[in-house]
Amino acid sequence: MNRIGPRAQVLGLRAAVLAMGKGHLAWYRRGFFIAAVLIGLLLMGSGCALLPEEKVDEVPVLLRPPETRLVTYEVIVGPIADQIRALGRVAAVKEAQLYFPRTERLKHVHVAPGETITEGQCLAELETGDLRYRLQRAQLALAQEELRWKRVENLVGIEINEIDYGIAQLELKKAQLEVDHLTRQLEASMLRAPFSGVVVSVDRRERELVEGYETVMTIADPSELEIQVELSYTSDVSKLVRGQKVLVNLGREEWVTGHIYQISTRQDDPSYARTSYQSAPFVIKIRLDDPRITLDFDSLVRVVIVIEEEPEAILVPNAAIRSYMGRKYVRVLEGDVRKEVDIVTGIEGETETQVLKGLKPGDIVIGK
Q1: Beta bridge partner(s), residue 203
Q2: pTM for the full model?
Q3: Which of 23, 35, 190, 301 is deepest in the core (most CB within 10 A)?
Q4: Structural contact between residues 95 and 297, judged by C-beta atoms closer than 8 angstroms
Q5: How far is 201 from 216, CA to CA, in rounded Å?
Q6: Which of the pair, 31 or 11, is modelled with greater confidence?
């Protein structure tokens, strides 16, 4: 029987203890790893629980788009007219814009709007300075030369020779010219009524500086009245002629007939021509067919100038007419078939247009 010595026993026990320690250390390491993994999973689970719950959107249901709705119109027969609608003023046939021929400050205005005046009455005056004084001196000089002339006539051939006679005659004429010149200047500083009537408007006030040929006031004779319409667009005026039919509204849908009597322009008025920097408007003067109808002076009335009219025209709404590169056409609906049809138009109204060629009554056209 072999015996192991004490040293060998100690070494063997130490080796056994080391072996057992290594095994336990490995086991501890594996346990620590497993515990760390579990704790990580628990933390991840608790963290996700704190986040809001995600909602999954449902897949939307796709709706069918609505069917295209066609706007259609029926071609009809009816009346249509090409018209110019405007606002007219009841004015006197005899009317005048008064002005001064020179620039000066306005001294006095003797009348007011609506006031009755007589022919020759002084309506307004300009500042004249010493004009009246110079006129009086000129009149005295003329009287002096007239007395001298009488003396020359009595003494001609006795004490007065032909040369002195001629000089005296010229001095008399010169004195008369000075009086006439100053008298015209004084008269030009006064605004007188060229005829009897009423004052329509006063456009300037006292102490204002008035330019030459600038309208100061307007007067009129209301014994004979007409309707005046101002148009600024040459394209409209180019369609008008004398004698053209006009409808005039006297109020409460009461319409009467009239006609164009005259077409003129404000450019003919020297007051307007010298003070306006814009093109002068055209003035359409209208007379009523029935002269017994009374009008209110200086009132406003609605006017419709009929350029062209057709009582039975083939009509299509303007909303159905299409144009491209000078071509006019419509889309016609025949059952389920749509086709483009070229048209020739006539009178164009505000909402409808006359069709001369391309359509017939009863056709169905498609709107834009």
Answers
A1: none
A2: 0.60
A3: 301
A4: no
A5: 9
A6: 31
